[in-house]
Amino acid sequence: MNEKSTQELENVLGSTHSRDFEAFYKENSNSMLKGFDTFSNYVKDLLKQKALTQQNVFLKADIPERYGYKLLSGEKRTRQRDVILRICYAAEFSLEETQEALKKYEMPQLYAKIPRDALLMIIFNERPGSIIEVNALLKKNKMKPLKTSGMQE
Asked: Which pLDDT belongs to residue 152?
């Protein structure tokens, strides 16, 4: 069954009674978010497709390895969207893959009307280099660099 858009689900919900929720959920479960496991599985699947190791990604993202493993296993959660962006960038995710990862982590997606997000969208499309170069580009444009991991939870 094809995944339905948010708008399609909202249209169906407009005429669904609460007693019919179980049937609605059964019919549309493939279109609904399933929690953290979807993020973890999504990232791990993409890493496998791209033949990248988690260890290499954490090194390139400048994230402590143990912390990175705990994030991907679900043992730890972060409220720092920049940490997820670092992982996505280091894992060579496209902009679309990054947006999907943010959505699955239940974080705001990059939004073109926010200047820093707009520059990050360009960065994900152009891939200018390492995280250090990404941060230099952000600073050059008078924007905050991608925060480092860990302690700012």
From this structure: 41
